[in-house]
Amino acid sequence: MPGEFTYDYAIIRVVPRVDRGERVNAGVVLSCADTDFLDARIFLDEAVLLALDPAADVQAVRQELSIFPIVCRGGSDAGPIGLLPPRARFRWLVSPRSTIIQPSAVHTGKTSDPAACLEHLMERIVTR
Q1: Which entry of 1, 6, 17, 128 is 20 to 30 Å from 59 by CA?
Q2: pLDDT score at 98
């Protein structure tokens, strides 16, 4: 049986009107340094987003959210940040921002399967 590894994750949130502070959970980014795992899953519930802000630019939000998995994969497609090690890319992805796309605080747990854990977190936190 594989051992358990410590992982860190953050919820990716869309805050269509920063002045109101309302948000939609739109993804999860998870890092497990012991296994060099870094990945993100994205799901945007457009109906919820538009309920919070009928003028939200859904296409622009989707484009911004699409950056998370690209940076997780690394490489030249992710620009200069993609050349950093996975843990450094995670820290960059979860750094606080005051834009429409905001990460939550970083949370920690233990798992023997980071990929399955990411899927579980997506189901529990993002998709309903």
Answers
A1: 128
A2: 75
Distance between CA atoms of residues 25 and 15, nearest Å: 9
pTM above 0.90, yes or no: yes
Strand partners for 111? 5
Separation between Cα atoms, residue 18 and residue 109, nearest integer Å: 29
| CA 113 to each of CA 7, 63, 88, 121, 124: distance values in angstroms, whole numbers, following the listed order | 10, 29, 21, 12, 16
pLDDT of 40 strictly over 60: yes
Q: How many domains does the chain have?
A: 1
Burial class (CB in 10 A: 0-12, 13-18, 19+), 5: middle
Query: Cα-flanking dihedrals φ and ψ of residue 119, to 5°?
Result: -65, -40
71 lies in which domain range? Answer: 7-126
In a domain, 1, yes or no: no
**Tokens coding 71:** 């940076």
